[in-house]
Amino acid sequence: MSLILGVNMSGRDSSAAILEGGRVRFAVREERLNREKKTRRFPMMAIGACLKSAGVGLEGVDRVAISWNPTINMERFNSAQSSVVRASSSATPSMP
């Protein structure tokens, strides 16, 4: 059976999961292991826990899937840009 390691780093809660034969065998959020609520750190401890639960090292994993959510970055970019536009428009006097 193939093993897939899933790694989530987008958003507030980083996490990892290990799948065997298409079924989730083990999954855990990094915050459960490092005791930092809503952690955005790389889920190194969660990955280690997944590998330990499967009884393999990283070399025993067939594939690694990494989540990426581009809309999170776009939301940050858009909010930063809209605040720049608001600041520049408030500095410009309005015409009668």
What does this structure look like?
The chain has 3 helices and 4 strands; from the N terminus they run βββααβα. It has 96 residues and is an alpha+beta fold. It has one domain (3-73): Nucleotidyltransferase, domain 5. It has a 4-stranded mixed sheet.
Topology diagram in text:
Layout: E1 3-8, E2 15-20, E3 23-29, H1 31-34, H2 44-54, E4 63-66, H3 70-91
Parallel strand pairs: 1-4
Antiparallel strand pairs: 1-2, 2-3
Descriptive keywords:
96 residues; alpha+beta; Nucleotidyltransferase, domain 5; 4-stranded mixed sheet; 4 strands; 39% helix; 24% strand
Provide a quick synopsis of the model.
The protein is α+β, with helices and mostly antiparallel strands and 96 residues long. It has helices spanning 31-34, 44-54, 70-91; strands at 3-8, 15-20, 23-29, 63-66.
Tell me the number of strands: 4
- In total, the number of domains comes to 1
Can you name the CATH architecture? 2-Layer Sandwich
Flag low-confidence runs.
none
Task: Write down the CATH topology.
Answer: Nucleotidyltransferase, domain 5
Query: Major sheet, described briefly?
Result: 4 strands, mixed
Order of helices and strands: EEEHHEH
CATH class: Alpha Beta
Strand content: 15-25%
Cα-to-Cα separation, first versus last residue: 73 Å
Please tally the helical runs, counting DSSP H or I stretches of 4 or more residues.
3
CATH superfamily: ATPase, nucleotide binding domain
Average pLDDT across residues? 79
Can you list the strand order of the major beta sheet?
3-2-1-4
Shape: globular
**SS-based structural class?**
alpha+beta
Cα gyration radius (Å): 20 Å
Give helix % range: 25-40%
